[in-house]
Amino acid sequence: MRVLVAEDERVLADMVAKGLRRLSMAVDVVYDGESALEKLGINRYDVAVLDRDMPGRTGDEVCRHIAGSGSGTRVLMLTAAAGIRERVEGLGLGADDYLTKPFAFAELVARLQALSRRSVAALPPVLEQDGIVLDVTRHTASRDGLALSLSPKEYAVLHVLLRAEGRVVSAEDLLEQAWDENTDPFTNTVRTTVMTLRRKLGDPPVLHTVARIGYRLGE
């Protein structure tokens, strides 16, 4: 899952991003609405977490832009205002969900996962293929009943490949969906991560390289 966090409280924004990255999400962070609009014009996000009360270009303006863009990006609005009127107004702007500060990080994660499932064709929270089971809610992975110890990026790559349901996924698409914008696109990070993931998945081989095209899952 690729997430944009737009929050002017820098400590909060950085803490949220750090926590989400530990859960294998690709996260870009900005601290104002203008920067959020710039990122949205460049990258595709599954979910945008917007502080409604950012200075300058507010979260309301960014939300309107997303709603009118047809990008499919879901919006989780953050606000310090707990009143029903504020929540109704935010949802009326096109937000998909609302969370009042202060919030529990676990609740933020649960809401993001729910929104992500709505940003693509409906997918179950548990993905299975060729004996591989990935539980998005519990953030666990196994093959043939044996737990897999995966790094955050290995988990993210496996998630993308399982979502593809056997279709070939290019290295470029993996880079876009599993890494944030700070990753050098000319490095061999995708190939290295796929190589270690393939080893951890074990035998019989299930993660295949399709020459000059990309990677796919399937025995």
UniProtKB/TrEMBL annotation:
Modification 4-aspartylphosphate, positions: 51
GO terms assigned for molecular function: phosphorelay response regulator activity; transcription cis-regulatory region binding
SUPFAM superfamilies assigned: CheY-like
GO cellular component terms attached to this protein's record: cytosol; protein-DNA complex
Database matches in Gene3D superfamilies: 3.40.50.2300, 6.10.250.690, Winged helix-like DNA-binding domain superfamily/Winged helix DNA-binding domain
DNA-binding region range list: 124-219
Single biological process term from Gene Ontology: regulation of DNA-templated transcription
Superkingdom of source: Bacteria
Protein name: Putative transcriptional regulator ycf27
